[in-house]
Design goal:
mainly alpha, about 140 residues, flat
Length: about 140
């Protein structure tokens, strides 16, 4: 569970890094400000709020995830208390970011691809065909 948790935040640290030499969410805003603002407005997402939430990640990155600060070695949970990042805020950050980028992508590429309807009616045939090729497979209908 800790590995999944840490990977989740490690990826978020990369996405929301503000270093001038990295290509992140903020870079997209910088290079395409009009499309970015249009997408954020259409999605009803406050970029200011996303930025405030993302700023909380810096504390976690610098003191716990990418760097282990000596002040926090014995009590890493203290870093979370100081950051004051809630799960709901993290969800708002990631979902808001996704929606802005999704809208920008669709504006550039056209309509969203429909998800095909699939009800699994053919699963029995698929399993039988697989079993023919792999008779020792531990799978049954």
């Amino acid at each position: 569970i800790y590995a999944l948790h840490n990977d989740l935040y490690a990826d978020a640290h990369r996405v929301f890094d503000k270093h001038k030499d990295v290509t992140t969410f903020w870079y997209v805003q910088k290079v395409s400000p009009e499309a970015f603002s249009k997408a954020a407005l259409a999605a009803n997402v406050s970029v200011t709020e996303l930025e405030l939430i993302a700023n909380k990640l810096v504390h976690l990155r610098d003191r716990l995830h990418f760097h282990i600060d000596g002040r926090d070695v014995m009590e890493p949970s203290r870093v979370w208390k100081i950051a004051k990042l809630s799960g709901n805020e993290f969800i708002k950050l990631t979902e808001g970011t996704h929606e802005i980028l999704r809208r920008m992508y669709l504006e550039m590429t056209g309509p969203d691809s429909p998800v095909p309807n699939y009800h699994g009616d053919d699963i029995g045939k698929i399993i039988c065909a697989y079993k023919k090729v792999h008779p020792d497979a531990k799978i049954s209908i």
